Every structure is written in C-alpha cells, then in structure tokens.
Amino acid sequence: MRGRGARSAGAAAAAGLVLVLGGCSSGGHGVSPLLSPSASRASATARPTHGTAPSASASASAAPVKGTAKVTATVATKLAQPWGVAQLPDGTLLVASRDSGKISRVDARTGEVTPVGSVPGVSHTPGGEAGLLGLAVSPDFGSDHLVYAYFTTESDNRIARMLYDPTRAEGEQLGAPDTILRDIPMGLIHNGGRIAFGPDGMLYAGTGETGRRGLAQDVTSLAGKILRMTPDGQPPADNPLPGSLVYSTGHRNVQGLAWDPQGHLWASEFGQDTWDELNLIKPGGNYGWPVVEGIAHRAPYIDPVVQWHTDEASPSGIAYAGGSIWMAALKGERLWRIPLDGTKAAGPPQAFFTGKYGRLRTVVAVDDHTILLTTSNTDGRGRPHPGDDRILKLTVS
C-alpha cells in the first residue's frame, strides 16, 4: 500500500501542452445498485476503454423533453455536512462529512448510520469550502477493498486510498491513508473535490482554481482542471500529453463528473456572476475560464452544452439516469434534469423540488430509474430543516 510515491503538481509536464489544449475548437454544444448488487456496474457496458473521446456518432435515442422525478424514501437523516457518497457492492453507502473529516456507513435498507473512521490531516476553515470532499470505490473493491478520498489539508488538496475493513470495530474500519496525489492547490474556496472512476478504469478528479483565476490556464498547475490518473495516481500513457495528469483545462470549479452509456464524460462547473455550466469534456479541451464564462463562441475555447444563471444553479454533483443528466444545485436549491440527444441537450433543462429541500449537493445513480440525492443545509450556507442533512431516494423517468 505504501510502496508508491505520491505525485505532485510539479510532475505535470508543460512542454507542448499549450498546442494540445489549444487545438480544440469552440461550439461543442459504475455505481452499484442500492438494493440490487447483482446489477453492479451494468451501466459501464458499451463504453470506451481508453482516454480518447468517443465518436459523436455513438448516440442513443434522444430522451423525452419532459421527465418526472419523485421522492420515494428518505434513506438517512441527521448527517453532518455530507459531501462525497460512494456505494459499495452490497448496496450500503459510505458518506463523507466535509468539516469533521469523518466517514460514515449508511445502511440503505434501515437508514442506520454508523461511524467508519476519520481521514487524518483533513483541514476545514469555517465559512470555507475545504475539507473531506469526494469519495470513490475502487473498481476492484471485491478484491482490494480500497476507498479513495479527495480532501484538503493545511497546505494542499490530496487524493488518498484507504483499506476498508468492516470486520473491525466501529470507527476503526479505515486503514492508514496511502496518498497517491498531493500538491493540488488549495484555498478557502474553489477546491473542486469530486472524484470518480471512469468506464476505462481510470480515476478522474475535478479541481478548482482556489480563487486564483490564472491557475485554470496554467498547464503546469493541477488547479482548475479535470485530472485523469491510474488507480496508483500515475498519468496514463494515452492522456493528452504523456507524463501529465491534466485531461482538460480552463475550469473554475468542477464538482460534478458523470458518464453516459456512450462513454461521454460530462462535468458541472460553477461560474462567477453570470453563467454556471454543464460541459461535455473532450481530452485536451480548454473550457475558457477565466477568459470566457458560459457560451462565448470564441475559439479555441469549448462552449458549455447548457448554461444557467448562477442564482438558479451553483451546481455540484451530477449523475446519468434515464437518458438525462441529473444535476444538484446548491444556491438554486433544485434538481435539474438535462435530457440528452447524443452530445447535445434534447430540450430545455427541467427543474424539480425548487426550494423544497434546500441546498442539494450530490447525486448518485442507482440504476436507470433510481437516483440518490443529498441535501447540503448544514454546510454553513443553508437553512437546516428538521432532520437535515438527509439522503433522499428518487424514482426518475
């Protein structure tokens, strides 16, 4: 577990990347099931197994313009600052508490919450956005029992993996963290934090520019990027530039990552004062921040597929289900459905639950008709309701 050295920002190769990233033109408009482990990773079929973008011709039928979303159960309540949620093969959930650095286990059938352990070194400043953020389960969890975490320390953001052993005493079920990547710039705000394994078995991470805008266009920095790495934290040979973890650049604060059945990577991104974004991610693509925000039709920057005014979104987690991307909105206090037609939106975004559950943080796809949704009202910026924060189970069209 400790034989691999953690990579740092200095390992991101810069030579030639400007040409790779600048070559993209403007205008481009495996979780386990909650209660059915036998269907594990079924959604990963028919997806590419390499780092190149799938063909635009590989598209499914367009999703209906109108859909439905109904809360069918409350899975858990009284969670403290839930951020990352990872689903284990048996359907149970691991949930990260941003401020405390603790990970809890949630029994999806009974709602029972039990402590798993803490990630050492997590740092959170009141009023800020740092702390224990994204969680991901190893694609080989059945054999390696590894859980990955993205978290902030006093000096940087890191990604570490830990052995999860549920046979040990409550609160002592996490092994010592094996840091696979360090020196991701950190700040009071814009730390990104979402991590997810793609259908290619690689680990992807969304990072923020920490409020230092120039880092998003600095190809030697890991901030303001989407990163792609092996499970050991190494740059895959088919990344846009060999030796670099940078997969795409020009991001302000990426907090949502999801793949559709055709293998397209989608990402949600916080804008500044005008436009929040849903982006279709291309290897080596430059998404414009801080030069442009939203749809600008300005080469070489890639336009978002959909944009929202910031008071309607401030997007965090996303998931794919039922032919659509489902996007949680924090400031917007709603769940957005974006119906897809291949690499485009099949119709205008559709909002659900506006103001009903407060701030919404993370979306997890259980199957093509079921998603989980977490509230985020105890994060210091919301108005907690009785029982907050909670995990909701939804049936979607």
Automatic annotation (TrEMBL):
Q: What is the lineage of its organism?
A: Bacteria, Bacillati, Actinomycetota, Actinomycetes, Kitasatosporales
Q: Which InterPro entries match?
A: 6-blade_b-propeller_TolB-like, Glc/Sorbosone_DH, Quinoprot_gluc/sorb_DH_b-prop
The record ties this protein, via Gene3D superfamilies, to:
TolB, C-terminal domain (2.120.10.30)
Tell me the PROSITE patterns matching this sequence: PROKAR_LIPOPROTEIN
Tell me where the signal peptide lies: none
Task: Report the protein name in the record.
Answer: PQQ-dependent sugar dehydrogenase
Which organism does this record belong to?
Answer: Actinacidiphila acidipaludis
Q: Where is the Glucose/Sorbosone dehydrogenase domain?
A: 79-381
Q: Region (Disordered): which ranges?
A: 35-64
